[in-house]
Design brief:
Layout (H helix, E strand, L loop, with lengths): L2 H8 L9 E3 L7 E2 L4 E11 L11 H18 L3 E11 L5 H18 L2 E9 L4 E11 L14 E5 L4 H10 L7 H9 L5 H6 L7 E5 L3 H12 L2 E5 L14 H10 L5 E6 L4 H10 L4 E8 L7 E5 L2 E4 L10
Parallel strand pairs: 4-5, 9-12
Antiparallel strand pairs: 1-2, 3-6, 4-6, 7-10, 7-11, 8-10, 9-11, 12-13
The structure holds adenosine-5'-diphosphate (ADP) and magnesium ion.
The site of adenosine-5'-diphosphate has 13 residues, from helix 1, strand 4 and strand 5.
């Protein structure tokens, strides 16, 4: 298959987004938007660095990279609309593999009715995929890291550490409880787009997605907002069978295990019941894990373990991806 028929094969038969004027097939895509703010992000995945074929099928590679992008949209409170895919293809990936990558993306994009409107296809030595996503928010309604204030409740969605647990299972064969659950959390994470969109009515909300572990993401909010954050160790949500893993890893993954693509946020106390209500409506678990505090050391995250408060060091999990 040549480049031309490849592009033809990944092209959508029809588009979902009303603002689209020109999709795939010209030198660039065109859409028109006058009423909303435009939010855009890009993510790049390199084989051997961000994923390997030992733990991911081609389908999962496509699914997961788009999920990571959509998670950035969720973290901004944006509604995703379009994506563009730049791909570097080495010899050892077949046309079939490639179509599975795009099927993985499609299985997720169809859920959110987002359109593939362009990209670039080249050959090279190493598989690399870069996705640009474009979304919209109501004017002035993007959610930033810099909006946390003292007294806010700190919350997270879902359970933490599951993606790394899935990776551990895939790389340490054995018998595990809830194996399928963990592996799925690693290969096919769910971006919290709908839940994030449901919080639009809240006047002030800071959000970040948990791509590198809660320690890192909480620190990003604390730094951007010039506040400190205290997290209570005993309430950090973990999954049902999480205790089966070595204790040291449990602890490491829940703070530093990346790629859960859950959200961490802060809201004023009076908005917390609304957050819980929306979470319930969207069948999303949400947990209060701490408080935004002022005073000593703005930009720092503290952790309370059995009433002993210590600094939670900001170190992501990137080296072990
Ligand atoms: P040009 O040479 O003008 O850059 P291309 O031949 O690279 O155009 O691309 C033709 C069309 O196919 C464009 O609309 C481009 O956005 C789209 N396209 C190319 N590669 C991809 C891809 N990997 N995913 C989605 N669209 C793609
Ligand atoms: Mg081109």
């Amino acid at each position: 298959m040549d480049e031309f028929s490849f592009i033809e094969s990944i092209k959508q038969k029809a588009y979902n987004q009303a603002s689209l004027i020109k999709g795939i097939g010209d030198d660039a895509a065109v859409f028109r938007e006058t009423q909303q703010d435009i939010v855009t992000a890009v993510d790049t995945f390199v084989e051997g660095v961000h994923f390997s074929r030992q733990t991911m099928q081609a389908f999962h590679v496509g699914y997961r990279i788009l999920a990571a992008n959509l998670s950035d949209m969720a973290a901004m409170g944006a509604k995703p609309a379009y994506y563009l895919v730049s791909i570097v293809i080495p010899d050892n990936w077949s046309m079939e593999d490639l179509s599975h990558i795009f099927e993985g993306m499609k299985s997720l994009s169809s859920v959110y009715k987002i359109d593939l409107i362009g990209g670039d296809t080249v050959s090279g030595d190493q598989m690399m995929i870069s996705i640009t996503v474009i979304g919209f928010t109501e004017k002035g309604k993007a959610r930033y890291r810099h909006d946390a204030k003292a007294g806010d409740i700190v919350f997270v969605t879902g359970t933490l550490g599951d993606s790394q647990a899935g990776f551990y299972i895939l790389t340490n064969p054995g018998s595990y409880k809830d194996k399928t659950y963990y592996v799925k959390k690693h290969q096919m994470p769910v971006p919290q787009v709908n839940f994030s969109r449901s919080l639009q009515g809240i006047a002030r909300l800071s959000l970040n997605d948990i791509s590198d572990g809660i320690a890192n993401e909480a620190a990003e909010i604390a730094e951007a907002s010039k506040v400190s954050i205290t997290i209570n160790d005993d309430v950090i949500p973990t999954s049902h069978a999480y205790r089966q893993f070595p204790q040291k890893l449990q602890k490491h993954w829940k703070y530093y295990g990346g790629e859960d693509f859950e959200l961490i946020g802060t809201v004023p106390e009076h908005d917390w019941p609304y957050v819980k209500k929306m979470a319930c409506l969207h069948d999303v678990q949400v947990t209060e894990v701490g408080k935004v505090t002022v005073g000593n050391k703005p930009g720092t995250v503290f952790v309370n373990v059995n009433n002993q408060i210590a600094v939670l060091p900001k170190k992501g999990y990137t080296h072990l991806k």
